[in-house]
Design a protein that fits this description.
The structure is a single chain. The protein has two helices and two strands; from the N terminus they run E-E-H-H. By secondary structure, it is an alpha+beta fold. The chain has one domain. It has a two-stranded antiparallel sheet. A hairpin with a 5-residue loop joins strand 1 and strand 2.
């Protein structure tokens, strides 16, 4: 479940559940990694067995 909030953290009447919530979470997670400059290569180097 993903619930959206206002800047003061009060909840909005908008909620995502199920597949929509999972896809939204994946989008936010991937975009955060890319914005921070890590990209996929930096993620892979931290995995066990990565070259």
């Amino acid at each position: 479940m993903t619930q959206f909030t206002r800047p003061d953290d009060s909840p909005l009447p908008v909620v995502l559940t199920g597949t929509a919530a999972a896809k939204f979470k994946e989008l936010i997670t991937r975009s955060t990694v890319l914005v921070l400059g890590g990209g996929i290569r930096s993620l892979a180097t931290g995995l066990p067995g990565a070259a």
